[in-house]
Amino acid sequence: MGNSLEGNHRSGFGDCGSVGHIGVYGMKRSVTLIVVHCTATRVDADFTQKDLLRSHKARGMRMVGYHFYIRKDGFIWSTRPLEMEGAHCRGYNQESVGIAYEGGLNENGHPADTRTPEQKHSLRVLIRTLKHMFPIKQVCGHRDLSFDRNGNGVVESSEWLKQCPCFDVATDQWCA
Ligand SMILES: [Zn+2]
Question: Running DSSP on this structure, what letter comes out for residue 173?
Answer without folding.
Answer: -
